[in-house]
Amino acid sequence: MGRMSDQPARWSQANVYPDMWADPDDDPRNSDGVSPDGELATLQDFLTNYRMTLRMKCEGLDAEQLARRSVPPSTMSLLGLLRHLAEVERDWRNWISDGEPLPKLYGERDADFNGAVGEQAVVDAAYSDLAREQAATDAALAEHPDLGERLGKDGFAVRELLVHRIEEYARHCGQADLLRECIDGRVGQ
After folding, report:
1. Which label site among 13, 14, 106, 125 has the fewest CB atoms less than 10 Å from its CB?
2. Closest Cα partner for 177 from 186, 168, 169?
């Protein structure tokens, strides 16, 4: 007799490549044609794809599932990641500003994760906050197309900020893979 487990079975929506999140023909991150020309367009394309990946990892889950935490004592959840990245997008604008820093979205340290509770209003607000903060940071950086330009009090290069944004989303997408698999068995790619 096999062992009983409360762990979800591994699964994927992909049919052609069952170890992938989505079949390549159905994956919205795959575009027809050639890759972008130039460094700025390439960096923006990578950022766009990681942002889309994070949303894909959250699709189809209810508020309770999105708020489900990984392993105690960790406060990490998919909803917490959405809120955290909204907070981080806001903070990146502080890096390139000479003015007073923008206030935190969620209050004290770690409130982005601690306040990620399984309520639909919190989920809706997290998606709204993330979209708004992403758009605001994108708009602020669009005013500085020279990747070597140094901004803010500490003189961060635009290139450095763009690469850091990609790294931040990539790292959190990896965490999202594991969180999603623990929730319902869906594997990432």
Report:
1. 13
2. 186
